[in-house]
Write a structure and sequence with these properties.
With 89 residues, the protein is mainly β. 11% of the residues lie in helices and 29% in strands. The strands form 2 sheets. The protein has a 4-stranded mixed sheet with strand order 3-2-1-8, with helices on one face. It is globular. The two termini are 16 Å apart.
Length: 89
């Protein structure tokens, strides 16, 4: 995956747009969210949504998840192994 922090867009390695990221609460931190036992997700009590940690997802698995639930919130860490940071707009 590739993530552009300037445009907040997440792409596959072959440049297919996966999702444009948006959170109306940008000051929230992962550690502020409630842990969901046995999952790679946490719960945001403010917007009442699950937030999925993408660090263990392949492009294909993430695309499938978003097909089923397009409004899913995603967590992307700039240091995760499966994602490169791309600054090209």
């Amino acid at each position: 995956m590739k993530f552009n922090p300037l445009t907040k867009e997440l792409y596959t390695d072959d440049n297919k747009l996966i999702k444009k990221m948006y959170c109306p609460y940008p000051s929230l931190r992962w550690d502020d969210l409630s842990s969901l036992d046995g999952t790679m997700s946490r719960f945001c009590a403010i917007c009442e949504s699950n937030v999925v940690d993408t660090s263990e997802y392949t492009d294909e698995a993430l695309i499938e998840l978003l097909k089923e639930k397009p409004d899913t919130c995603l967590k992307i860490d700039f240091n995760q192994k499966n994602t490169r940071i791309d600054h090209h707009a």
